[in-house]
Amino acid sequence: MSKRGWVLFGAMCILWGLPYLLIRVSVESVSPFFLVFGRTAIGAVILLPVAALRGQVVPVLTRWRPLLAFTVIEIAVPWVLLSEAETHISSSLSGLLVAAVPLAGTVMVALAGRSEGLRTVQLTGLVVGLGGVVAVLGFDLRTLTLGAGLEMGVVVVCYAIGPQILARRLSDLPGLGVVGCSLGLCALAYLPVALLTVPRTPPPEAALASILVLGVVCTAVAFILFFQLIAAIGAIRATVIAYVNPAVAVVLGVVVLHERFTLGIALGFGLILLGSLLANRARIAGRPPDLPRPLLADS
Predict the structure, then answer these.
(1) Strand, helix or coil at 115?
(2) How many Å apart are CA 9 and CA 111, to the nearest integer?
(3) What's the pLDDT score for residue 289?
(4) Choice between 168 and 188, residue whose per-residue pLDDT is larger
(5) Residue 88 — φ and ψ, nearest 5°?
(6) pLDDT per residue over 109-148, tens digit each?
Protein backbone atom coordinates (compact mmCIF):
# COMPACT_ATOMS: atom_id res chain seq x y z
CA MET A 1 0.00 0.00 0.00
CA SER A 2 1.31 3.46 -0.88
CA LYS A 3 1.93 6.22 1.67
CA ARG A 4 -1.16 8.04 0.40
CA GLY A 5 -3.17 4.86 0.83
CA TRP A 6 -2.03 4.47 4.43
CA VAL A 7 -2.86 8.12 5.18
CA LEU A 8 -6.35 7.79 3.72
CA PHE A 9 -6.88 4.48 5.51
CA GLY A 10 -5.86 5.95 8.86
CA ALA A 11 -8.02 9.01 8.31
CA MET A 12 -11.10 6.90 7.54
CA CYS A 13 -10.58 4.69 10.58
CA ILE A 14 -10.69 7.83 12.73
CA LEU A 15 -13.46 9.66 10.86
CA TRP A 16 -15.85 6.72 11.06
CA GLY A 17 -14.84 5.80 14.60
CA LEU A 18 -15.42 9.35 15.85
CA PRO A 19 -19.22 9.66 15.31
CA TYR A 20 -20.11 7.49 18.34
CA LEU A 21 -18.38 9.98 20.64
CA LEU A 22 -19.93 13.00 18.92
CA ILE A 23 -23.40 11.46 18.98
CA ARG A 24 -23.10 10.79 22.71
CA VAL A 25 -22.13 14.41 23.34
CA SER A 26 -24.91 15.76 21.10
CA VAL A 27 -27.86 13.75 22.44
CA GLU A 28 -27.26 15.11 25.92
CA SER A 29 -28.68 18.42 24.65
CA VAL A 30 -30.67 17.79 21.45
CA SER A 31 -33.14 15.16 20.29
CA PRO A 32 -31.98 12.31 18.04
CA PHE A 33 -34.22 13.64 15.24
CA PHE A 34 -32.73 17.13 15.48
CA LEU A 35 -29.24 15.63 15.49
CA VAL A 36 -29.82 13.47 12.42
CA PHE A 37 -31.48 16.35 10.58
CA GLY A 38 -28.52 18.60 11.32
CA ARG A 39 -25.97 16.00 10.28
CA THR A 40 -27.71 15.03 7.03
CA ALA A 41 -28.58 18.61 6.08
CA ILE A 42 -24.97 19.74 6.49
CA GLY A 43 -23.69 16.74 4.55
CA ALA A 44 -26.20 17.30 1.75
CA VAL A 45 -25.38 21.00 1.43
CA ILE A 46 -21.74 20.06 0.87
CA LEU A 47 -22.07 16.93 -1.28
CA LEU A 48 -25.07 17.69 -3.49
CA PRO A 49 -23.49 20.68 -5.30
CA VAL A 50 -20.37 18.62 -6.01
CA ALA A 51 -22.46 15.72 -7.32
CA ALA A 52 -24.61 18.11 -9.39
CA LEU A 53 -21.55 19.69 -11.03
CA ARG A 54 -20.44 16.20 -12.04
CA GLY A 55 -23.87 15.39 -13.47
CA GLN A 56 -24.50 12.69 -10.87
CA VAL A 57 -27.80 13.86 -9.36
CA VAL A 58 -30.36 13.44 -12.16
CA PRO A 59 -29.36 9.84 -13.01
CA VAL A 60 -29.69 8.92 -9.32
CA LEU A 61 -33.10 10.56 -8.90
CA THR A 62 -34.51 8.60 -11.85
CA ARG A 63 -33.98 5.50 -9.72
CA TRP A 64 -35.96 7.01 -6.86
CA ARG A 65 -37.57 3.83 -5.51
CA PRO A 66 -34.38 1.93 -4.60
CA LEU A 67 -32.79 5.25 -3.61
CA LEU A 68 -35.63 5.82 -1.15
CA ALA A 69 -35.27 2.29 0.21
CA PHE A 70 -31.54 2.76 0.66
CA THR A 71 -32.06 6.12 2.37
CA VAL A 72 -34.56 4.72 4.84
CA ILE A 73 -32.62 1.55 5.67
CA GLU A 74 -29.03 2.82 5.61
CA ILE A 75 -29.44 6.36 6.99
CA ALA A 76 -32.86 7.48 8.24
CA VAL A 77 -33.72 4.57 10.53
CA PRO A 78 -30.31 3.48 11.89
CA TRP A 79 -28.94 6.98 12.50
CA VAL A 80 -31.97 7.94 14.60
CA LEU A 81 -32.04 4.64 16.50
CA LEU A 82 -28.29 4.79 17.13
CA SER A 83 -28.64 8.32 18.48
CA GLU A 84 -31.61 7.31 20.64
CA ALA A 85 -29.75 4.28 21.99
CA GLU A 86 -26.81 6.47 22.97
CA THR A 87 -29.06 8.42 25.29
CA HIS A 88 -28.97 5.25 27.44
CA ILE A 89 -25.68 3.49 26.63
CA SER A 90 -22.06 4.54 26.24
CA SER A 91 -20.51 5.45 22.92
CA SER A 92 -17.97 2.64 23.27
CA LEU A 93 -20.70 0.03 23.78
CA SER A 94 -22.66 1.25 20.76
CA GLY A 95 -19.51 1.15 18.64
CA LEU A 96 -18.80 -2.41 19.70
CA LEU A 97 -22.33 -3.58 18.94
CA VAL A 98 -22.17 -2.04 15.46
CA ALA A 99 -19.04 -4.15 14.93
CA ALA A 100 -21.44 -7.09 14.51
CA VAL A 101 -22.61 -5.72 11.13
CA PRO A 102 -20.19 -7.90 9.08
CA LEU A 103 -21.58 -10.96 10.87
CA ALA A 104 -25.16 -9.99 10.04
CA GLY A 105 -24.15 -9.23 6.46
CA THR A 106 -22.63 -12.68 6.03
CA VAL A 107 -25.83 -14.34 7.19
CA MET A 108 -28.01 -12.20 4.92
CA VAL A 109 -25.89 -12.87 1.85
CA ALA A 110 -26.18 -16.60 2.54
CA LEU A 111 -29.94 -16.42 3.13
CA ALA A 112 -30.40 -14.43 -0.07
CA GLY A 113 -28.81 -17.30 -2.01
CA ARG A 114 -25.99 -15.16 -3.41
CA SER A 115 -23.28 -17.40 -2.04
CA GLU A 116 -22.47 -21.07 -2.04
CA GLY A 117 -23.69 -21.34 1.53
CA LEU A 118 -21.83 -20.90 4.75
CA ARG A 119 -18.56 -22.78 4.90
CA THR A 120 -17.15 -24.22 8.10
CA VAL A 121 -14.82 -21.30 8.63
CA GLN A 122 -17.67 -18.83 8.17
CA LEU A 123 -19.91 -20.71 10.59
CA THR A 124 -17.06 -20.73 13.07
CA GLY A 125 -16.69 -16.98 12.62
CA LEU A 126 -20.39 -16.42 13.22
CA VAL A 127 -20.33 -18.48 16.41
CA VAL A 128 -17.20 -16.71 17.67
CA GLY A 129 -18.62 -13.30 16.80
CA LEU A 130 -21.91 -14.09 18.49
CA GLY A 131 -19.93 -15.12 21.55
CA GLY A 132 -18.28 -11.71 21.46
CA VAL A 133 -21.64 -9.95 21.39
CA VAL A 134 -22.81 -12.07 24.33
CA ALA A 135 -19.61 -11.21 26.21
CA VAL A 136 -20.09 -7.49 25.63
CA LEU A 137 -23.72 -7.59 26.70
CA GLY A 138 -23.13 -9.97 29.58
CA PHE A 139 -20.61 -7.71 31.26
CA ASP A 140 -22.58 -4.54 30.57
CA LEU A 141 -26.17 -5.51 31.39
CA ARG A 142 -26.28 -2.86 34.10
CA THR A 143 -25.92 -0.10 31.50
CA LEU A 144 -27.93 -1.68 28.68
CA THR A 145 -31.71 -1.29 28.67
CA LEU A 146 -34.01 -3.56 26.68
CA GLY A 147 -35.03 -0.65 24.47
CA ALA A 148 -31.46 0.35 23.68
CA GLY A 149 -30.56 -3.27 22.96
CA LEU A 150 -33.44 -3.63 20.50
CA GLU A 151 -32.56 -0.32 18.86
CA MET A 152 -28.96 -1.41 18.36
CA GLY A 153 -30.18 -4.72 16.94
CA VAL A 154 -32.21 -2.88 14.31
CA VAL A 155 -29.21 -0.65 13.57
CA VAL A 156 -27.03 -3.69 12.90
CA VAL A 157 -29.64 -5.27 10.62
CA CYS A 158 -30.16 -2.02 8.69
CA TYR A 159 -26.43 -1.52 8.20
CA ALA A 160 -26.20 -5.06 6.85
CA ILE A 161 -29.11 -4.63 4.41
CA GLY A 162 -28.21 -1.17 3.08
CA PRO A 163 -25.11 -2.17 1.09
CA GLN A 164 -27.06 -5.05 -0.45
CA ILE A 165 -29.64 -2.60 -1.81
CA LEU A 166 -26.78 -0.65 -3.33
CA ALA A 167 -25.29 -3.78 -4.83
CA ARG A 168 -28.52 -5.06 -6.35
CA ARG A 169 -30.40 -1.90 -7.36
CA LEU A 170 -28.00 1.05 -7.55
CA SER A 171 -24.78 -0.60 -8.68
CA ASP A 172 -24.46 1.36 -11.93
CA LEU A 173 -24.77 4.79 -10.33
CA PRO A 174 -21.98 7.07 -8.99
CA GLY A 175 -21.46 6.75 -5.26
CA LEU A 176 -21.20 10.46 -4.54
CA GLY A 177 -24.53 11.11 -6.23
CA VAL A 178 -26.23 8.32 -4.30
CA VAL A 179 -24.88 9.50 -0.95
CA GLY A 180 -25.64 13.18 -1.61
CA CYS A 181 -29.21 12.49 -2.70
CA SER A 182 -29.80 10.13 0.22
CA LEU A 183 -28.60 12.72 2.72
CA GLY A 184 -30.82 15.35 1.10
CA LEU A 185 -33.90 13.12 1.19
CA CYS A 186 -33.29 12.22 4.82
CA ALA A 187 -32.85 15.87 5.80
CA LEU A 188 -36.12 16.83 4.08
CA ALA A 189 -37.98 13.97 5.74
CA TYR A 190 -36.77 14.89 9.23
CA LEU A 191 -37.16 18.66 8.85
CA PRO A 192 -40.71 18.80 10.30
CA VAL A 193 -39.78 16.61 13.30
CA ALA A 194 -36.59 18.60 13.84
CA LEU A 195 -38.59 21.84 13.96
CA LEU A 196 -40.89 20.31 16.57
CA THR A 197 -37.93 19.23 18.71
CA VAL A 198 -35.83 22.38 18.51
CA PRO A 199 -34.25 22.87 21.97
CA ARG A 200 -36.01 25.52 24.03
CA THR A 201 -32.67 26.87 25.18
CA PRO A 202 -29.57 27.16 22.98
CA PRO A 203 -27.55 23.92 23.16
CA PRO A 204 -24.08 24.17 24.67
CA GLU A 205 -21.18 24.83 22.36
CA ALA A 206 -19.97 21.24 22.69
CA ALA A 207 -23.24 19.89 21.28
CA LEU A 208 -23.33 22.38 18.40
CA ALA A 209 -19.70 21.70 17.58
CA SER A 210 -20.37 17.95 17.63
CA ILE A 211 -23.25 18.28 15.14
CA LEU A 212 -21.13 20.48 12.90
CA VAL A 213 -18.22 18.03 12.94
CA LEU A 214 -20.59 15.12 12.33
CA GLY A 215 -22.04 16.80 9.26
CA VAL A 216 -18.91 18.32 7.75
CA VAL A 217 -16.11 15.97 8.74
CA CYS A 218 -17.65 12.59 9.57
CA THR A 219 -20.21 12.69 6.75
CA ALA A 220 -19.30 14.94 3.81
CA VAL A 221 -15.50 14.89 4.03
CA ALA A 222 -15.46 11.24 5.13
CA PHE A 223 -17.40 10.04 2.08
CA ILE A 224 -15.19 12.04 -0.28
CA LEU A 225 -12.08 10.54 1.33
CA PHE A 226 -13.65 7.08 1.29
CA PHE A 227 -14.08 7.20 -2.47
CA GLN A 228 -10.46 8.32 -2.79
CA LEU A 229 -9.38 5.47 -0.51
CA ILE A 230 -11.15 2.95 -2.72
CA ALA A 231 -9.48 4.43 -5.79
CA ALA A 232 -6.10 4.19 -4.03
CA ILE A 233 -6.22 0.71 -2.47
CA GLY A 234 -9.30 -0.99 -3.88
CA ALA A 235 -12.70 -1.80 -2.41
CA ILE A 236 -11.66 -5.05 -0.73
CA ARG A 237 -8.89 -3.52 1.37
CA ALA A 238 -11.05 -0.49 2.11
CA THR A 239 -13.64 -2.67 3.86
CA VAL A 240 -11.06 -3.46 6.56
CA ILE A 241 -11.80 -0.07 8.17
CA ALA A 242 -15.03 -1.64 9.45
CA TYR A 243 -12.91 -3.77 11.78
CA VAL A 244 -10.89 -0.82 13.11
CA ASN A 245 -13.64 1.75 13.68
CA PRO A 246 -15.05 0.04 16.81
CA ALA A 247 -11.61 0.10 18.43
CA VAL A 248 -11.37 3.83 17.73
CA ALA A 249 -14.85 4.33 19.23
CA VAL A 250 -13.84 2.48 22.39
CA VAL A 251 -10.57 4.39 22.81
CA LEU A 252 -12.25 7.76 22.29
CA GLY A 253 -15.08 6.89 24.66
CA VAL A 254 -12.69 5.80 27.41
CA VAL A 255 -10.17 8.62 26.97
CA VAL A 256 -12.44 11.58 26.21
CA LEU A 257 -15.70 10.68 27.99
CA HIS A 258 -14.10 8.57 30.71
CA GLU A 259 -16.35 5.61 29.96
CA ARG A 260 -15.61 2.33 31.71
CA PHE A 261 -13.29 -0.12 29.96
CA THR A 262 -14.66 -3.43 31.18
CA LEU A 263 -13.57 -7.02 30.80
CA GLY A 264 -16.63 -7.56 28.62
CA ILE A 265 -15.51 -4.83 26.22
CA ALA A 266 -11.98 -6.21 25.95
CA LEU A 267 -13.06 -9.84 25.52
CA GLY A 268 -16.09 -9.07 23.41
CA PHE A 269 -14.30 -6.84 20.93
CA GLY A 270 -11.59 -9.43 20.39
CA LEU A 271 -14.15 -12.16 19.70
CA ILE A 272 -16.29 -9.96 17.44
CA LEU A 273 -13.23 -8.90 15.47
CA LEU A 274 -12.01 -12.48 15.08
CA GLY A 275 -15.47 -13.73 14.18
CA SER A 276 -15.99 -11.00 11.58
CA LEU A 277 -12.62 -11.73 9.98
CA LEU A 278 -13.40 -15.46 9.76
CA ALA A 279 -16.96 -14.93 8.52
CA ASN A 280 -15.73 -12.59 5.78
CA ARG A 281 -12.52 -14.47 5.01
CA ALA A 282 -13.23 -14.73 1.28
CA ARG A 283 -13.84 -11.01 0.99
CA ILE A 284 -10.71 -10.08 2.89
CA ALA A 285 -8.61 -12.63 1.00
CA GLY A 286 -9.42 -10.83 -2.22
CA ARG A 287 -12.17 -12.94 -3.76
CA PRO A 288 -14.99 -11.03 -5.45
CA PRO A 289 -16.94 -9.29 -2.66
CA ASP A 290 -20.64 -8.58 -2.53
CA LEU A 291 -20.06 -4.84 -2.64
CA PRO A 292 -21.87 -2.03 -4.46
CA ARG A 293 -20.15 -1.00 -7.66
CA PRO A 294 -20.54 2.76 -7.07
CA LEU A 295 -17.97 2.39 -4.30
CA LEU A 296 -15.60 0.66 -6.67
CA ALA A 297 -15.16 3.67 -8.92
CA ASP A 298 -13.38 6.95 -8.43
CA SER A 299 -16.20 9.38 -7.79
Answers:
(1) coil
(2) 31
(3) 41
(4) 188
(5) -120, -25
(6) 767 665 545 567 767 777 777 777 667 666 555 666 778 8
- For residues 242 and 156, is the Cβ–Cβ distance under 8 A? no
Q: Map 47-112 to HEC letters.
A: HHHHHHHCCCCHHHHCCHHHHHHHHHHHHHHHHHHHHHHCCCCCHHHHHHHHCCHHHHHHHHHHHC
Cα–Cα distance between 161 and 74 in angstroms, integer?
8
- Residue 298: per-residue pLDDT: 33
Cα-based angle 170, 240, 258 (whole degrees, multiple of 5): 115
Q: Where are the domains of the chain?
A: 3-296
Does the pLDDT of residue 52 top 60, yes or no? yes
pLDDT tens-digit map of 184-231:
999 999 999 999 999 888 999 999 999 999 999 999 999 888 888 877
- Cβ-based neighbour number of residue 216 at 10 Å: 16
